[in-house]
Write a structure and sequence with these properties.
single chain, 172 residues, alpha+beta, Glutaredoxin, five-stranded mixed beta sheet, 14% strand
């Protein structure tokens, strides 16, 4: 549930709920630029942590992303969910829609993906991720930590550049 070099000097930890409209905005509008400017250059690794802040459909979507991740497509699944998100509100995530996202991104073993949607270990992992986020004081998403600083909300690209540049300068 990460992109970027394992040995990148800065890790951007990103908490997200796949039903969050602001997470979708960040994913569509800001993250591609950050990937191009920082991740692709080996300076930043992005680690994703799912949370279930918006109900059962949030939990189901988090499990589905992890199921796609078992087949090497976690990030692609996340991109597909956010690309389809409405401009506002929390989209419904029925099982059929979760499977459709998997089909759209080319999950090779759809039968395994569907079986993984019912995997209690994946569900437990998403619950633990949410609990951990709450213990850290994450009360809203998207939420980010890089180095010793936190940033909340779907901020502008410029705000993230400043945030990441600060973390990089301290990492050197």
């Amino acid at each position: 549930m990460a992109i970027g070099a394992v040995d990148a000097p800065v890790v951007l930890v990103y908490w997200t709920d796949m039903r969050c409209p602001f997470c979708a905005v960040f994913s569509r509008d800001t993250l591609p630029t950050l990937i191009q400017e920082y991740v692709d250059k080996g300076e930043v690794r992005v680690e994703f942590h799912d949370v279930e802040f918006f109900g059962e459909d949030s939990a189901a979507a988090a499990v589905a992303a992890r199921a796609a991740g078992k087949q090497g497509l976690f990030f692609e699944y996340l991109e597909a969910v956010y690309a389809a998100a409405p401009e506002s509100g929390h989209p419904d995530m029925p099982r059929e829609r979760l499977i459709a996202f998997a089909e759209d991104i080319g999950v090779a073993d759809l039968a395994q993906f569907e079986a993984d949607l019912d995997d209690p270990e994946l569900r437990t992992a998403t619950e633990q991720s949410t609990s951990f986020a709450q213990q850290l004081g994450v009360t809203a998403v998207p939420f980010f930590i890089a180095g010793d600083k936190a940033l909340s909300g779907a901020q502008s690209v410029e705000a993230f550049r400043s945030f990441l540049d600060d973390a990089l300068s301290k990492a050197e």
